[in-house]
Amino acid sequence: MLISSLRGRLFTGLTLFTVGMALAAGYLAYRWAFDEAIELQDAILLQVGSLAARNHLSTTLPSEGNIDGEAQVLIEEIGPGGGAAERGNSAAGLPGDLPDGLQTVSRGGTRWRILVRTRSDGSRVAVGQPTANRDEVAQDSALRTIVPLGILIPCLMVLIALVVDRTLRPLSRLAERLDAKRSDHLEKLPTEGIPTELLPFVSSINRLLERIKAMFDSQRRFVADAAHELRTPITALIVQAENLEQADLSKDGRDRLVSLKTGIRRTGHLLEQLLTLARYDNDVSKDKPESEFDRVLKGVVADLLPAAQNKSIDLGFARIEPISVRLEPVALTVLARNLLDNALRHTPTGGQVDVSLFAEYGFIVFMVKDTGSGIPDADLNRIFEPFVRGSRSQGEGSGLGLSIARRIVERCHGSIRLENKSAPGSGLRVIVRLPQD
Description:
- The chain is an alpha+beta fold.
- It folds into 3 domains: 6-152, Beta-Lactamase (2-Layer Sandwich), CATH 3.30.450; 181-284, Signal transduction histidine kinase, dimerisation/phosphotransfer (DHp) domain (Helix Hairpins); 290-435, Heat Shock Protein 90, CATH 3.30.565.
- Helix content is 52%, strand content 16%.
- The protein contains 8 helices and 11 strands.
- The protein has a 5-stranded mixed beta sheet with strand order 6-8-9-11-10. The protein has a 4-stranded antiparallel beta sheet with strand order 1-4-3-2.
- Helix 5 runs parallel beside helix 6 and helix 6 (329-346) packs antiparallel against helix 8.
- It is rod-shaped, with a radius of gyration of 47 Å.
- The two termini are 52 Å apart.
């Protein structure tokens, strides 16, 4: 399976290389230690054989102290009849024609490593050990040699993982900074502390951010200029439509005039919303005055009471506390008016709209509840996009009110959330949370 993670590729590649080299080194070290142990045992046989040839020893060397039985050496005289002296040992039956020197023979189903020496008087002596014992001792010695290497491999793997993680940490921090950026904040990424290998990549991202920022600025200027230029002819159309009301028109003509005025009002409202959106998109100031949110909210509710009474909607406060927020009064007015106007437009005649403003857990909470039809779940994720009105839109809205509200809230590093009430078709709850200074 292809590993798509760069961290995974580095760790896997380095681990495979390290383990492969460790296995090869372990095998070579094992063979070297094994051969060295066999050579050491042959050297012991040579020394014992030399001693036995000079002193006519013919016995098993005693096992004293902590000498392992597997390391004992058997010494036998080879009789003139071609066999070993009759001493009842396990090496009996050695042929008398064995040549002098080290050799491996098999007797009684056991393999022996034998050293044969001929004395000056013609007598012969054999010194030997079972090869199984010798191999076991050599294997134990060789395994002890590679045990440190076996311990080192897991430690190296942990070290590799730490080094890879630390090496790629600047890349992870870079990704976190990119994810944390809001769509309207396109400042360059810092290059301090970035590894040299990543500098070209970061520079490319910064150039891309510059191009995107230039494109956004051009788009915002175009929207603002177009909306501003259209205000004058729209105002003139409104005046002309009002003048037509004074004229003697037929019933059909007056019906058409009402439709014309409705369209003109909707266009004028759309232009005002576009200008508001452009203003908050271009507003980069950080120092904002502190405003009394409760007073602004009371003023907005008072302005909208006539519209609520026309639809017999109960508009009022469920809870309100004196709260100040660091934001321009105009922005607070636009935020409150857009949310309340949206609630009134989607609440049926005889319904209810409740407004709440209070402090909770270090946040300022502004909440609007209505008894309208709510928003389909499929529209909840898109309703904040510009010009998206949802599948249950009513009235003359432009689809920009919620988008503007979100821009204002994000300027304060707050959040806005829409929730349908628990019972289907029982209304919508809008919750705005602003950080409390």
